[in-house]
Structures
1.
Amino acid sequence: MKKAIAMLLTAAMSVTLLAGCGGDDGSSTPSSGGAPTGAQDSKESTPADDGQGGNKTLADYEKETNLRVFVINSGITDEEFNNQDIAKLIGEKTGYNVSYVQAPAADPQAKNNIFMLKEDYQIVNVTKDEFYVLMMQGALAPITEYVEASTNLKGAMTDLVWDSARGSDGEIYGIPYCQPKNVTANGLAYRVDWLNDYNAENPDAQIPVPSEENGYSMCISDFQKMLEYFKGKVASGGYPMAVRNTSALINPILAAFDVYQEWVDIDGKLTYFVEQPGFEEYGKFIDNLYDTDLLYYAKTPQDTNDITMMQDGRAGVCLANHWEALNIEKVSAPEGADINAYTDDNFGYMAALVPDEYKGDASAVRVFSSQYVDQYGVIPVHNTAQQVAGAVDFVDKKLDKDLFLELSIGVEGDTFEIRDGEYYPILGAEHFDKMTYADKFLNGTIMEDYSKYWLARARKSQAQEKIFFTINYNIDNTGIKSPVTMMPPNDVYNEYWSKVNSELNATLILNLFDKATTYDQSAVIATWERFNGPDVAEAVNEWYATWSSKDDFNTVKPR
Amino acid sequence: MKKQKSDVVIKPSFGKQMKQYGNLFLFYIPAIVLVVIFSYIPMAGIIMAFKKNPNLLGSSSAIQGILDADWIGFKNFEKIFTDPDIISALRNTLIISMQKIVILFPIPIVMAICINEMRGKIVKKSLQAVMYIPHFLSWITVSGIFITLLSYDTGIVNNLMQFFGFDRIPFVTSNDTFRGVLVVSAAWAYLGWNTIVYVSAITALDRDLIEAAKIDGASKWQQIIHVTLPGILPTIAVMFILRIGGIMDAGYDQVLAMYSPYIKESGDILGTYTFRLVKEAGLLPQYALSTAVGLFNSVVGLVLVLSGNFISRRLFKRGLW
């Protein structure tokens, strides 16, 4: 009897194991049996025209209405994500039955699996770099035909933005998600109260407080003087300035050394930041700050980070992204205070440093401004023509003007209000319950509208509003963008850039944040050359020489 | 003396065994299925080491992508072995592994003997439990604990050193001390668990032998040297051969959790090198190159296991085969 049971169990285990390892039985595939897979077939499998000789619209296509969408991780469960009010609203208004799956936070390779294993997803949100790699590998469905047939989608974005989604065959392979405005994401947070103390103690050697008058900037020597004073103000074990364990590049300080972007046009050629003329001086400046204990660098991810040090008074200056201001300022909020309405006047922000000769000159401020297109919604090539048409139609419907407003910032009087033509969130639980994850549901934007709506998202707390509008003060006259963000896929760039960038970062960290070493520009350049940096620069410039928009792209010129 | 007929053990034929115990062989099936699916079938992917980087994303299937890639012979290996970084990674891998073997391999044996000699049953059991709990913590957690304890600015170890008048030491970010941190943290995480194997082996020893040694007047030390250690020698030999086979794995996740550019010279191992190949060598993961590194690792591991087995058979008359 025991033997019989044992045999039965063993057989059952074996069968289960084999079944578990077996392939997809196809039951989850929405396309019906026998339909040709692969969007290359889409032209054949859809009507050649509308039968009337006129332009086709998406309504003329046969569409799959059950869609699976792969989105970036929001820090909540898939179930919670799918139960968001926004998800329900989208389903209701578009008529599509959509299930969302979030990328695992700790597994960025998950997207590769989708394409390798032909998993059943109709829209996958990817970064710009991922988009180019996937496009070059032939992993994406061309969607030009469907974009042309769309009602809202095609006109929602400029031709320049659509061009960034085209392959060398001229086909569109992704739906761009644009940074709606020319913005800078980070600035320097500093202790205003300590700076005021300095000015009170040194009436004859004042350091102008960053303000509208000086374009929220400070000159290099004043900045160093301020750090030296802060040395006596920080709590035990602290440093005047703290930098987190990510990058050796501090954009608001780089700008003072005439390094305004990672790729900048110098005499008609795009030059990478380490080869820009001011970079060596930047290196020496930071190296000196570190060697004289004015700067703390978190050498491992587990070391105390800069934000924590600002919170507890162990640092007086740090690099801060605009979404981090609330974290910095809320620490001092009294119990029971509305955190989102709270600001701490002891903290201030500056956009960038300027050379000493431009002290107080607001027109001389220059800041790094962010990428133009940073994400794409793509459709894997193994989807059927019906699925591709359904996916594009779904995005098209989301870009209906009224629905897009509701998806972006909610309902007027409920989650936002308009004052002087500007959009403001109505802060409170209602707003956050409904709108916290709203941007994660967007594919493509109505650029003109979103540039206004998006600002409401930057006003989600008064601390965030405070930093955002400080570091973006006069951004249209100070922000410089990297032309490479508009570069189409490039083999050489794709092969070498990631590696050379990573190796450069390691070399810079060793050169800047180690007291045993002195900054050595030749070591940095040697790394750039060893890991094919010049090849990357050559490839980038080959494209740049032929780029028709180069004269219009950056309206702000170097100082 | 001629062996009596009754002493001769005749091994039954396979057919006879099948007839007598055939149903028990069914228990092998899950294990065989697992090994075939997860160990043998993936070996086919080795062909990637001799091909151009395959297009896994845009092909009709990942397998098709591998099959379609062009053959390039040993070019991937040539590319890898002309990279000075891999030579450094190989050296670090061997040094760190050897340090772990030399320092950490004997300690669990000694600890198992000590635990075996303890009298209080409660203390003995509690000690074992406390010792092997760290094994269940991930390396991210363990490295977090060690980095916090050893932090240059705020770690308790450096605070104590400063209190006693010594200079602070950047343990985790210095090439002079990083390998030491790896060995110590590996000891903390694994010693307890490894000790269990030897405690089990000692427990299984014939108590009569120890009693006989006691009656013959053997001291505790003599009992250990002449009874306990020879008794667990087969276990030690097997563990040693397996450990030697894993010499090319110097603790990838442990190193990665503590990695920073500061310790590249002493801490960059083949595992972290391969990680960078896949993650950073380009926007497209370098499957072909990383397969070549993996194959090289496996071949070296196989050679070491076979060598270890050979040496073990010669020295201890014991081995895996």
Note: Chain B has a mean pLDDT of 87.
2.
Amino acid sequence: MHRLRWVEKFLVWLTAGSLLLPLTACGVFWFLARDKASAQSSIDIYPAKVQELDIPRDEAQMGQLEEACCESDRVLYFAKPPMTGEDVEELQRGLQQLGVYHGPISGTFDRRTMEAVIAFQRQEGLTSDGVVGPVTWQALADDFPVPVVEGSGQVPEGEKEIVIDVARRQLIVYIDGKEYQRYPVAVGLGKTPTPIGEFRIVQKSMNWGGGFGTRWLGLNVPWGIYGIHGTNKPWSIGTQASAGCVRMFNRHVEQLYRITPEGTLVRIVGRPSDPVTRLLKPGNTGQDVVTLQLALAEKGYDVGLADARYGEQTASAVKQLQEDYGLYPDGLGWPDVYLLLGVR
Amino acid sequence: MQGRMVRVALAVLVLAAMGFSGWQWIQWYYPHITLDPEAEIDPERNYTINVWVERGRGLVKMPALEAEFWSQVTSDFKSVYPNTEIVLKEVPAPDLEREMKEALNRGRPPNVLVASSQWFRCWSELQLPIDRFLPEGEREGYVLGALQKVTVGENLMAWPSHIQPRLWAANRKELGKLSSDLASLLEEWKAGTLWFGDDLQAARDKLLKLKDVGENQLAHQFGSSATLVDLSVALGGGLIGPKGELLLTKELLTSLVDLWQALRDERVLELVQGTLLTDFFSGRRMVIGPVGLWIWTLEEEAALRGYRALSVPQDVILLPPPGGNGENCGLLGTTVEVAVFRQRPFQGPAQARLSMEFARDLSRKLGLELSITGLGAPAYKPLWDEWQSALGWGPDQRVNLEEVLESMAGLPPLNPKWHEARRRLIGEVLIPGFDDFVNGKVGPEIAEKLDGEMRTFLAGIQGRRSQGKQR
């Protein structure tokens, strides 16, 4: 009888222990990752915004948006092995420009980086845990001086057009062909370049926060989701920093948002990155299509907009070129067409 | 009696007045046209020269009216004739025919028309011959084929400006590797005599020998009927005789279609779609065509794209097109001409002289301007030094080009009526028919079909003429 009571006690303790142990572990994990959790929650608001704005809604497309723009922030902290990446580089640059980090821009979240983050958090009155989430990113951005651009008054009537010069990292607004405003921007990194071509603003939205800043102007680039938007990393403006989108200071993008309606033409000028190697035909899209369209336009053939879509007008321009040179006019992008156009 | 005298006198007066008016009308409608290079220019009078410029046809990229070229040309002319105003107007190529017809019907065509053509067009009797403004010494400066192309009857009917000849190209490296009899075959081609042996059978036998070099060494642009059309005109004695008779016989047409078919069946000639030029620059084809002078401009691009088998000009020589150097082969391809028109009523010899002089200056300057791109050559050879140096082309290239152009200068001239009939016959019957053949829509029976259609076409023109006579 006594032995049975002892066994009973043992089973009760065993059950309680097996319940308490995972709960404790979860609590500890939650405590350590609370900044990370808050960052996650800020990312979670995107699908809601997306739904509201009627842009791609499903998870795959949302992933595409984040992948295209890469503006959703990873939570950064000191870990073993250390975290590395362009976001760490951006963090180091931001801390360096604010004078709290004096190490190299290595892209590795090392001890010096963590100490700089803690110093900055202390200075700003934030939780000094060395973990960089949206609150810390925003505090970094808020401390960054934004160059003043004139032109916040009445916007003149007239046809608006935006030209983004990728090489100079500038965005220029034209109204009826006359320059109206000029802003510095950040463009895509070498491995994730900003798409070159002639696109239109097809959606406008505001206050997504985080890496997208305060305004979003979506472009109709056919192979991904790209846009012009604000940022929480203002020190990156003037550099190659994004995953293809065009970043602006929040104050500037707010001004641009006010100036340009949906449908505004956006010419992104620069050197298209993709070589033309495949046989292009109607229905194809891509940066190589832009290369072909720009080369046709340079030779005087009417392709309409160099919008990265191999449509009827592009096919018709190719046919005209083929006829002019005595080739069979089938409207397809054959090697002979590329040779005559000098596209590579 | 007195009343009778008065009536007679009145009748005489009325008749005299009518006769005078009739004479004046005849003078106005059929004026004595004086084309005098020495006509006196009245310094007190203001002259206006209306110039129409055709825009947007093929590889002829005319300078835009706001380009510096036109301000330079007009200011140069005005520095000599300050009392002249030049009025330029651009006419899109598709609208040119309609606008010209309307203007000609009103008797008010432009004084000067700049247009391009495959087969030269003589628009109307208001078009003026340039012969008196072209001294013998200067005449020799022109590419002979370009002059022949604008010859209608016994007159030169426009100023030749720019030529984009239709040619073939050969890989000199491969030619060097050929056995001696095959090499001489290609030499024959280069000299332009290959296609005019004793008969087409001989040409066919010789060409089939190319098979020894390897299959498909002779490659042709897929879907292009140009070679068959050119051969038809050359073999057919210029297609039409001086009295409008059809010179291209059914037998010749049949032989030609058979030759084409045999070359393809024996895999000597291959029709290549989309990769003819890249195959050539990779060294995979020995002779290709038709191409233009622009083949010489592709070297850098070909090298950048990795086709390093050939370098220009050492390895790429131009050949005349099949039919070249036949007695009846004209300058094939696209040309730009500057034509001069009078108006109804005739505005006088001074106006004609100014229009002619402006057209001559313009034709030469435009010829150079259009040729700087390497798409063609100036029709006036004294400009070739400047043209060549701008392109960096060497003396060998010039010699080669002159050789092939010499072989394209034998098209017999016709009077205006049959000149126009030949132009239309080629455009409306021959080209569509051969297009269907080369694109596989119709077989060798095309020879008989074309023969019938050409005869019907010419009978239609003859019929209209005889009906007109009956009336």
Note: Chain A has three domains: 34-142, 160-269, 287-341.
3.
Amino acid sequence: MSRFAMVIDTHRCVGCQDCVVACKTENNVPEGYTRDWIAEEVHGEFPTLHLELRSERCNHCSNPPCVACCPTGASHVHPLGGVVLVSHDLCIGCKACLAACPYDARFIHPDGYADKCTFCIHRVERGLDPACVSVCPAHCMHFGDLDDPRSEVSRLLASRNHHALLPEAGTNPNIFYLT
Amino acid sequence: MRTDSGNPVSRRSFLKISAATIAAGAAAGSALHAVYETPREKGIRRVPTYCDLCFWKCGAIATVRDGRLWKIEGNPLDPLSRGRLCPRGTGGVGAHFDPDRLRTPLLRASERGREVWRPVSWEEALDFLASKMRAIQTNYGPESMAAFVHGIGGTFLKHTLKAYGAVNIAAPSFAQCRGPRDTAFRLTFGDDVGSPERTDIENAQCLVLIGSHLGENMHNTQVQEFANAVGRGASIIVADPRFSVAASKAKFYLPVKPGTDLALLLAWMNVIVSEKLYDKEYVGKYGFGFEQFAASVVPYTPEWAYPETGIEPETIRATAREMARYRPATLVHPGRHSNWYGDDTQRERAIALLNALLGSWGRKGGFYIPSSMDVPGYPYPAVPKPSRPALRAMSNKFPFANEDISTSVREATITGQPYPIKGWMVYATNLINSLPNQDETIRAIRQLDLLVVVDVIPSEIAGWADVVLPESVYLERHDEMNPELFKQPFIALRQPVVPAPDNQKPNWWIARRLAEKLGLGAYYPWKTIDEYLEHRLTAGGYSYEQLKKQGIIRGKQPPIYFDDGAPAQFDTPSKKIEFYSTQLAQAGFDPVPKYTRPDPGPPGYYRLLFGRAPVHSFSRTQTNPLLSDVMSENSLWLNAREAQKLDLKSGDYVRLRNQDGKLSNPIKLKATERIRPDCVFMVHGFGHTSKALRSAYGKGASDAGLITRYKNDPLMGGTGMNVNFVTIEKGA
């Protein structure tokens, strides 16, 4: 078995959005849409501030509400790494998954189906990193298998403080942010 | 080992070391494997080239799928990108697909500034241009034809202009951007910081950024090295009125009052000198005039600096000691865009001197000594000797300028003195937005007999042109090769990936054909760009075939630090690092920087500051569909409590009115804790007024439109632009 995850180092991230642009070209994401984005979180009062920049996307949850709610089975979990995908030909564009996703990670593609991050499974199958990971000039993104304790992502999570988004939603997200 | 090739293109700096080539495959075997040996896919073609989204010139590999441009990635062989482009480079595909790009030559069909055009053939456009240039030559002399260029793409046009007899060829990147820095470092160390900057961020243990917002300012190699520095826990000190991304990574954030950086620098030096924390051996060995310098910084105590800068004395002391603790691996970054307040060369000289105290020039973790590969220049016939010198040589106004000053060319165009300027060729720089005070630029344009713009998009300056020549974008053309002066010497090639979609032409073709039309064909002994590139490479002992295949040929890296044998030479009058500058003293300037308090601006106004975003370059990329999708407009950063006072919230649209009554486009407010209450900030390049830039027209506000005032740097003619103040008006 394998469980793919992304570990993103918020110390290194400069929020440049290269991950967003690379995803758009790699996956031909249509104009007006993006599958990933940068979140800016500021705490404190000037000049004593803390800023966290996060590259966000579908969390490829281990307990994905978007799959549970899909009436046609278009939203599904791929056997490789537990990646959450959408079969375009089965999707009827009903938006149930858009409503179910607590991360607002999905949108309706102009061609009528629900679309989102695929962890670039077409690249991963060929032994490459997802486009966002491989482009990052800050080298802040890591991709790998959490079921392999020797993988880089496993080692980073074992050795560094980290958090995931909305753990209270019970989705078991697979994107982790090093802090 | 050093040979002088007479290469007209590469910067031949005093300390340049020549480098021999090595087999690239050996140095980067695994990286090569990843890119070139991936399983062959049907319909996929990969072409190496180098990027043109900014001046950094990263090596890239473009992928074409089924005949259509798909994506661009970094070339792992390239020492600049190291296989990873920045967001603009990644979005370079959008330059090819830009719906608003220029498609065919245009001749103006109405008065200047009213974008009414007649599409014409290249022959008609160039015949018209050549006839106008000949008229200027006859009526005023060829020196009256000036040019403004940005980037390596201007190489061949400059060659044609020089053959014609032009002598005033200015790069706004000097007097509007990096000039003060380069002048200051030359006065101090006898050499430029260069581009790419010779900053060894990779090995710095302490990095000091003054206003420089790396990470938002996306100079690829520097940002990669900055992230590495953050990752390994380097001590970072940031002084900036805005809590930049870089500030968020800093151990010390100093929210300095705008315009007082020089006071902070002088106080730092005061601490380092008075506490004897400087590198005594280095200063003793390489320094000139240290005693006079040391005496000069005595008054600038941290207590003196506190009311000026707003930074507490203990913080100034702590950060000065922090810098000294890590020296010589402490890098006080000189920044790049340094035309801020009009005393910029002196501020940059203080940065240079602080580095000199820390012993970081020529040292690991400071400033390395770069080298480039020797590629001989093309053996062109000698260009004619000008009968009148360049404007710069006829005036003592800015004695330390070593490049043409764009704003002086503009001034001469308005006044006709010391001789008339009647023609402008503008290549790849949007003068309306790059020069301060748009009214002056327009007044100058009205004096011209000819304005020709060569560009890829219908920028604001193109709107004023008589002739617009559409250049193919970098993915569709060959260009001058780039034998870069860098830590790791290399040669990079730009070559076409896909054909130009319409009637666009590469700059080399335009320059060569224009020369023929002007009867200057003899200055182009080569027929095709391949012939030119191959000739130069062969003369240097390099293989064009190898370069075409790999995009990059790397050379052997000579020692880059003094401690490893790099030559410690300083091309200053004393042949030493000039703590005290006799050159400046003789010319009547402060030989050691002195502080003058900046104009605080009218009461109730905010100082207007501008900077960069990682996804856009200047005002050149706002119609790129990929990049505008990520950032389609700029926003106005205003301190959250100030916003509250004005009853404004994030997302509201406001207009800015400057001290001269100039009103901006509506701009979206960003009420944030991340900026001081006495200034506002916006990203440069938005608020386009050219209707032909359909997808960017009117989106966001233009800082350039509000920069009606500027303050000339008396040393080199730079235009300090952070001297404008605004009030905020509600509503769109």
Note: Helices of chain A lie at 18-26, 65-68, 96-100, 121-124, 131-135, 152-159.
4.
Amino acid sequence: MHSLTDRYVHAATRTLPEEQRADVARELEAGIADRVDAVLAERPDLGPTEAERRALVELGDPDRLAAGYAGSPLHLVGPALYPAYVRTLKGVTVVAVPTATAALAVIEALDGAGWGGVLGRAAWMAFTLTVQIAFWVTLAFAVVERSDAPARQAEGLGVGEWDPDSLPAVPADRASLGEAVFNVVWLGLLAAAIGWQHLSSPLWRDGERVPVLDPDLWSFWLPLVLVLLVVEAAFEVVKHAAGRGWTRGFAAANTALGALFAAPVVLLAAEGRLLNPTAVAEIQEGWSGFDPGTVHTVVLLAAVGIWVWDSVEGWRRARSA
Amino acid sequence: MDDDLLGGHLQELRRGTVVVAALATLRRPTYGYALLERLAEAGFPVDANTLYPLLRRLEKQGVLTSEWNTEEARPRKFYSVTADGAALLEALLDEWQTLHTSIGKLR
């Protein structure tokens, strides 16, 4: 049976080039033996086995020692390449994931897949793509890190030295990013709520889920509303990316888009077509005073109110900018 | 002043001087473990798993040379500075003097 020292020396030298291995191993053995002697001289009570163990613990992870001999890095991506690595990772993810996910969702939807199927497959696509991008970008940078001249190799990857031209523009409106993120998240929640009330409605009747909104609306109106939500979100992104804050043009576009979004909601609410009659009946069984007309009136007033307030706010900020 | 803070900065300062200390010590042939002990006594913080590879690297750069001594029961590899190594040590010590003078002027 081999001693701990034998095993340690083997672990620390096995990755070294053949011609160095025996020499390094012999020197390392002598060094460990010297250390064991020194430990024993200090603490004779320990015994040779425990002294050997202590000497090896002091010397530390043999892989670290091996890396020291080989001069290989103990990190995946080092400080020289790290900023370029993060930039590349972000850049590729931000461009590729939404584009590919949206394309897949459109194709699936045109293919006649159900809304649940489209959402699920799009989410899975986004997740898989993110993992794949993270893996391949990291692998590429780890390989470059281990090449002879990392900086020059990195230029070959198209991520050469940092250039002042790549500086991001300062947004004119300091609150712009937070505002854009908030609005996009809010629009996303609204879209999710529309999907949620259909797929996992809390209302049940005869063992089946009862959507809150009339399922017949999916033939045209609800998809239109979802598309308008995406357009609103795109507007927020464009406004933020332009970096000029609120301008008269944006205020006008905001009013027009708001009207486009409010129109179908107002129309459906006015005609009393928003709520699912089955859902209304179900609610009335538990709460006889429930009046769908009130709900439709509240939705109508809220839609108009939000549109007016949002438009006025846009114009006000465009003027004060 | 905070002892940890001082200790941390002192260690950083000394870390860069390990090569100078090793070259200075190796004007007389010495083997790895003995060098480790001499450096530790003199207050240079260096771990065995840093020093052993460092000696190999300096040898590869031609500033150290080595020879196996097999006269004793335990064969040991003795390192000593080459002519290049001695010149490097002088250059580093000159730089040290320059730094010392420059810092003195800055104060």
Note: The mean pLDDT of chain B is 91.
